[in-house]
Design goal:
alpha/beta, Alpha-D-Glucose-1,6-Bisphosphate, Chain A, domain 4, Quinone Oxidoreductase, Chain A, domain 1, Rossmann fold, 3 domains, 7-stranded antiparallel β-sheet, 7-stranded mixed β-sheet, 26% helix, elongated, binds NADP nicotinamide-adenine-dinucleotide phosphate
């Protein structure tokens, strides 16, 4: 009677990564502990249907197996034993992979049928199930976690637990953009729950300017021996991972944001809770341009502003990094979108990104125009701060909501409750990090941003690129009011 063994598991790695190992019929001596040596007979390729692999096992047994089918489309291969010193007869096995719905993990199904000499059924079933399949699952996990699948066979192991050289931009004292200086340093190895990332693109945000000016010293404290490194987000590739790093693997392309500055550098260790894997369609520079700003647009529209069909939304700096995303996404959600910008060129761009009515003003005068256009705004997203205070109050409709997002023109003084009373207004002062405070929520929001990009609800904003060493210039540009879209440092 034929015996049947079926085992399956989920591997914490995208399907392309797992399949790249398993489709190679000659890879097992690099990751499966039962296999001492493997070669493909007759010099054929390891993915050539019909090829025969010859295994020497650690226990001294010898097995020859033939590849019967291989489908890259279905991520499936079938093989059989043609000759073996173990008594497995008519052994045929199939490996099938399926992506888990989050796209970052892989379901692996391994099954076989075979005959055995009488009386040895249970022993050989157990050997296949435990000694080959279960052991193989664990071993492949380890292999991927250590990034060994990314190294050419026989090359040196990746450095772990050692600091690595990094280039970083530091601040010794608060002040103007000229205070930003580039220097060489060492990036610590990842600790428990951390990954070390080779950063390729770093998002520049207005909060970096506030930190540099010393407006939020508790977030970026400076000490003589310990200069501050600004930067809240970056994208790149995982170099190595500490224990318990959420299944992230060396070689994974990722983006992160976090409430502790330090992203203006080439190599950095960060908590894996801040990190998401990037879909193939999103390159590092696009991720750095979109990640923090897109997540911000998501929580503003979806959670805080509850923007939907008919919402009258006023977006300040509508041609800026956050502004363009807000305009496009809100329009897609059916809102009436009004925006303020400081030039005609910016007005054109904001319109192209879905802003229905653009008010051009350099001196923060917009309330009359908003009232005339739509009778007042239900939601104002305000990154301007002090200079727009009175106009915001005047521009809001009854029961309107003023979301104070930032303070590009200067910090907002305290708001008296009575200032809100006249029209039953509400006021909030959110920060993105509280809206992505758990890995599950972060992953969900990131997923929504990538989906919005894929289905055209948002577009990649114009990106201005600067080298990491030119961070000071990038800051000057951000403060100039001359530019549009997002700024990215390329590392
Ligand atoms: N709280 C959060 O969760 C969160 C997250 C992300 C961003 N933000 C805030 O959202 C706002 C937009 O951020 P962003 O990174 O996308 O920047 P941005 O909008 O690309 O750049 C800032 C824009 O603000 C306008 N602005 C008005 N007065 C200014 C002044 N005195 N100096 C400089 N700019 C001035 C300019 O647009 P015009 O010339 O067209 O007026 C400028 O382009 C910022 O206030 C930022 O702090 C907050």
């Amino acid at each position: 009677m034929l015996q049947r063994v079926v085992r399956s598991t989920v591997i914490d790695a995208p399907i392309e990564r797992v399949w790249a190992v398993l489709r190679d019929f000659n890879s097992h001596d690099r990751w499966h502990p039962a296999v001492e040596a493997s070669h493909i007979e007759g010099g054929e390729r390891g993915d050539q249907v019909g090829c025969v692999r010859s295994f020497t096992l650690k226990d001294g047994n010898h097995i020859r197996e033939q590849l019967l089918t291989l489908s890259d489309r279905d991520h499936r291969s079938t093989y059989c034993i043609v000759e073996a010193t173990v008594p497995l007869q008519r052994y045929v096995a199939t490996i099938t992979l399926k992506p888990v719905t989050d796209g970052q993990r892989t379901f692996w199904h391994w099954e076989s049928t075979f005959a055995t000499p009488p009386g040895r059924e249970a022993e050989l079933r157990d050997m296949v199930a435990q000694g080959v399949y279960e052991t193989g699952f664990d071993a492949l996990r380890r292999h991927l976690r250590q990034g060994e699948d990314l190294r050419p066979a026989g090359s040196a192991p990746m450095p772990t637990a050692l600091p690595l050289p990094t280039r970083r931009v530091v601040l010794h004292r608060y002040g103007g953009a000229e205070e930003l200086r580039a220097e060489d340093a060492q990036a610590a190895a990842p600790r428990e729950g951390e990954v070390r990332i080779r950063q390729r693109a770093i998002g520049v945000n207005f909060i970096d300017v506030y930190l540099r000016r010393g407006w939020i010293p508790q977030m970026l404290p400076l000490a003589p021996e310990q200069p501050g490194v600004p930067g809240m987000e970056a994208a790149g590739t995982v170099l190595d991972a500490g224990p318990g790093a959420g299944g992230l693997l060396p070689g994974d392309r990722v983006a992160y944001l976090g409430p502790v500055p330090g992203a203006y550098c080439t190599v950095r260790s960060v908590p894996s809770d801040w990190v998401v894997r990037l879909p193939p369609a999103v390159d590092d520079e696009v991720a750095a341009a979109l990640f923090l700003k897109g997540l911000t647009a998501d929580y503003l529209l979806r959670d805080l502003g509850r923007v939907g069909p008919g919402t009258r939304l006023l977006v300040h700096a509508a041609a800026g990094g956050v502004g363009l995303l807000l305009c496009a996404w809100a329009k897609h959600l059916g809102a009436t979108v009004l925006g303020t910008v400081s030039s005609e060129a910016k007005a054109r761009l904001a319109r192209e990104h879905g802003c229905d009515q653009v008010i051009v003003t350099r001196d923060y005068r917009f309330a009359d125009a908003v009232q005339r256009a739509c009778g007042g705004a239900d939601v104002v997203v305000d990154g301007l701060g002090v200079a727009a205070r009175e106009e915001n109050l005047a521009a809001l409709a009854r029961c309107g909501h003023w979301i104070s997002l930032g303070q590009a023109s200067g910090p907002l003084p305290p708001i008296e409750p009575d200032a809100l009373l006249a029209k039953s207004l509400s006021f909030s002062r959110p920060v993105v990090f509280d809206y992505v405070a758990s890995p599950a929520v972060l992953a969900q929001r990131a997923q929504r941003v990538w989906a919005a990009l894929a289905d055209g609800a948002i577009r990649v904003p114009p990106i201005e690129r600067y080298s990491l060493d030119a961070a000071a210039q990038a800051h000057e540009r951000l403060e100039s009011r001359e530019r549009t879209g997002a700024l990215v440092l390329v590392a």
